[in-house]
Amino acid sequence: MTWYTYIARCRDDSLYTGITPDLQRREWLHNHKKGAKSLLGKLPVKIIYSEKFVNRILAAKREREIKRWKREKKLNLIRTHSLRSV
């Protein structure tokens, strides 16, 4: 099954990183208050970056890596890359 690591921009301009097998559904879930509770006061969100992986384990590993980054490094990733497959 294909999985994605994604970065979403929140209403307050913060960035949220997560994983999902379905990007459109995940964005819908976040925006309908069925996603991460940490986003409830930051809706709506828009997924602005994603990377494609062959399984959940690899997507989660990349999520952990990106979550440790500072904001500027995340923004640079968003600016310089489009959809990636791993």
Question: Topology of this structure?
Answer:
Elements: E1 3-10, E2 15-20, H1 23-31, E3 45-53, H2 56-67, H3 71-80, E4 84-85
Parallel strand pairs: 3-4
Antiparallel strand pairs: 1-2, 1-3
Describe the overall structure.
The protein is an alpha+beta fold and 86 residues long. The chain has a single domain (3-85), classed as GIY-YIG endonuclease (3-Layer(aba) Sandwich). Helices cover 36% and strands 29% of the residues. The chain has three helices and four strands. It has helices at residues 23-31, 56-67, 71-80, and strands spanning 3-10, 15-20, 45-53, 84-85. Strands 2-1-3-4 form a four-stranded mixed sheet, with helices on both faces. A hairpin with a 4-residue loop joins strand 1 (3-10) and strand 2 (15-20). The protein is globular and about 30 Å long. The two termini are 13 Å apart. The relative contact order is 0.25. The mean pLDDT is 93.
For the structure shown, list the relevant keywords:
alpha+beta; 29% strand; single chain
Widest beta sheet: strand line-up: 2-1-3-4
For the record, what CATH class applies?
A: Alpha Beta
Q: Determine the strand fraction and express it as a percent band.
A: 25-35%
User: How many domains make up the 3D coordinates?
Assistant: 1
Structural class: alpha+beta
Helix-strand string: EEHEHHE
CATH topology: the name is GIY-YIG endonuclease
Cα gyration radius (Å) = 12 Å
Number of strands: 4
**CA-to-CA gap between the ends?**
13 Å
Number of helices: 3
3D shape? globular
What's the CATH H-level superfamily name?
A: GIY-YIG endonuclease
Please mark out the parts with pLDDT under 50 across 5 or more consecutive residues, or reply none: none
- Give the integer mean of the pLDDT values: 93
